[in-house]
Write a structure and sequence with these properties.
Length: about 325
């Protein structure tokens, strides 16, 4: 037998202490994972905000570039239209008939229409030989030509095409060439300007891609930290169930010991209590007395036959004592 008495619950207390120590370490580990997840989430959000700012800047520059490209397209369309007019004027100047399969340019049609209108108006003003029927026919023709001119004008104005004079083709061709060269140069300049915008956009694409990759990396780090924290938390739940089970066992044992001690103390107090204060004993004795008519305390009860000689002996003794006192 050892000098130190080992209590039954010492092993449970040792296991409980070890488990609580482990729980404390696990709780710190879980909190570290949660803190890492929080920092990763904050960094990820900051990177995503920065990436959004870059994307917005890229979109703004792309819209600017799109507008410049559209301006270049308009200059190109004007140049092509003017060059088409030049080719038609050169063909007219050389006396070649237009290819019936090809449509006239808007400017040539407008110039021819305006020329016909001018001829009819001049004739109406100066020709005094016109009768009423001829004049009405010319007015109808003039009205038709004016309607045609009104239909052609918006198309010409859309491309801001200069008017031409069919009466002086050389001068018209020269002006058209100058205008075509100007539109071509404007187109080239617009494309150069759009290219400069693109050069500004390209490094922003690299930065956007880097921020996107960094955001993905930080998001994955956040997910991994959260997963690690969840795994530790699940392990803690299992261990905590075991800890609570041991605590309940120790509590039950403690309550059992306390109950045993209390019952023992109550028994001792009852045993040491005076008979006058022992209500249960008094009630028991009262019951015996009422049932048997006599009580014996501190010894055994005597029978009726044993009691009778005792009383006779007492009488005899009294008589002998009286006789002896009379002799004296």
């Amino acid at each position: 037998m050892t000098d130190v008495e080992v209590k039954p619950d010492d092993d449970l207390r040792t296991r409980l202490h070890a488990m609580e120590t482990k729980l404390k370490r696990m709780r710190e580990n879980r909190n570290n994972h949660n803190e890492n997840a929080r920092r990763a989430a904050e960094s990820r959000n900051a990177v995503q905000d920065q990436s959004k700012t870059i994307r917005d800047s890229i979109n703004e520059l792309k819209e600017t570039q799109k507008e410049i490209r559209e301006r270049a397209r308009i200059h190109k369309a004007r140049r092509d239209e003017i060059q088409s007019h030049i080719r038609e004027l050169i063909a007219k100047k050389r006396g070649r008939r237009d290819d019936e399969r090809s449509a006239k340019s808007v400017v040539i049609e407008l110039s021819e229409t305006e020329g016909e209108i001018e001829v009819i108006e001049r004739r109406l003003e100066t020709d005094g030989r016109l009768n009423l029927d001829d004049e009405n026919k010319l007015l109808k023709q003039l009205k038709r030509l004016i309607n045609k001119r009104d239909e052609l004008l918006p198309s010409v104005e859309e491309f801001q095409i200069i008017s031409i004079d069919l009466g002086d083709m050389d001068e018209s061709i020269t002006r058209l060439k100058s205008e075509a060269d100007l539109e071509h140069q404007n187109m080239v300049d617009s494309h150069k300007e759009a290219d400069l915008v693109w050069e500004e956009i390209k490094p922003m694409f690299d930065e956007r891609n880097f921020l996107r990759s960094e955001g993905d990396r930080l998001h994955n780090a956040f997910l991994e930290a959260r997963k690690a924290a969840d795994e530790v938390h699940q392990e803690m739940k299992v261990l905590l169930d075991q800890v609570n089970e041991i605590r309940d066992t120790l509590k039950a044992q403690r309550e059992d010991r306390e109950r045993t001690i209390k019952d023992h103390n109550d028994s001792v107090r009852k045993a040491l209590r005076p008979l006058s204060e022992n209500e249960e004993l008094a009630q028991s004795l009262e019951g015996i007395f009422l049932e048997q008519g006599s009580l014996t305390l501190g010894g055994t009860r005597a029978s009726e036959s044993e009691k009778q000689p005792s009383r006779a002996n007492n009488k005899n003794k009294r008589r002998r004592l009286g006789t002896t006192r009379g002799k004296i």
